Amino acid sequence: MDERQREILKALIGEYVDTAEPVGSEWLSENINLDLSPATIRNELHALELAGYLMHPHPSAGRIPTDKGYRLFVDQFLPELILDFENQFRLKEKENENEDFDSFLNEAVRVIAKLTQCIAIGISPHKRVYYTGIANLLKQPEFKNSKKAAQIVEILEDFSQLLDLFKKIPADTKSQILIGKETSKEEIRECSILVTYFGDGDSEGMLGVIGPKRMRYDYNQAILKHFARALEVSFHNNF
């Protein structure tokens, strides 16, 4: 893939994330700084489609990313986004040292769901599961089909299935992004999962979000890392 194709793919995915609408050559010609005609961009889009990075949802529509396209975006284009939460949403300070760590984790999950507009999940080192934000997923156009939403809820309510979602994540990494079919669950192939761990060794917990493949990967990843750091401090202070 040459630099021109990289810029076109990056711009197309960014626009699709924002709008959930297929992106065409006219929009790209007007909005990327490459001084290319719509005809030239159509040729590049066709090449990217043949390479497996894009697909045509309808014959006359623009293109949308495939799982392969999202994977390239995540691996090569994803910026590290530094968030300043000092004057924004913050975890509620624990009222006393005896407050249960899991209550602290549950509050983190609630705030993460609010910030990301995805399903947020927390698994404590004690293997208790907390999740919220199903309504967030139901608002997304990809999940208007109630059957898809019901399948995700079923997985969330089955701890063994939930843990299965994270089997492909290497043990030596602190965070991971699984896209579409990479999640290994047919029921959520339209989703991506972001996961970040906190704690250490046998006493390890997890934060994650489940949302559409069209999610804001940079923003959501930064949020998870921020709260994982806060929980890491709390965990070490309590155990």
Polypeptide structure, described:
The protein is an alpha+beta fold. The protein has 2 domains: about 5-75, Arc Repressor Mutant, subunit A, CATH 1.10.10.10; about 100-239, Beta-Lactamase. Helices cover about 45% and strands about 15% of the residues. The chain is built from 9 helices and 7 strands. The chain has helices spanning about 5-20, 25-30, 40-50, 65-75, 100-115, 135-140, 145-155, 160-165, 215-239; strands at about 55, 65, 120-125, 130, 175-180, 190-200, 205-210. Helix 2 packs across helix 3. It starts with a helix and ends with a helix.
Keywords summarizing the entry:
five-stranded antiparallel sheet, alpha+beta, 239 residues, elongated, Arc Repressor Mutant, subunit A
Distance between the termini: 49 Å
Helix content range of the residues, please? 40-55%
Q: Provide the number of structural domains.
A: 2
Query: What is the helix/strand order?
Result: HHHEEHHEEHHHEEEH
Placed side by side, the strands forming the largest sheet appear as: 4-3-7-6-5
The Rg value, from CA coordinates, equals 19 Å
CATH architecture label of the largest domain: 2-Layer Sandwich
The main pleated sheet reads as: 5 strands, antiparallel
- In DSSP terms (H or I, runs of 4 or more residues), the helix count works out at 9
The low-confidence parts are none
Integer average pLDDT: 83
Global shape: elongated
- The name of the CATH topology of the largest domain is Beta-Lactamase
Fourth-tier CATH superfamily name of the largest domain: GAF domain
CATH class of the largest domain: Alpha Beta
- Number of distinct beta strands: 7
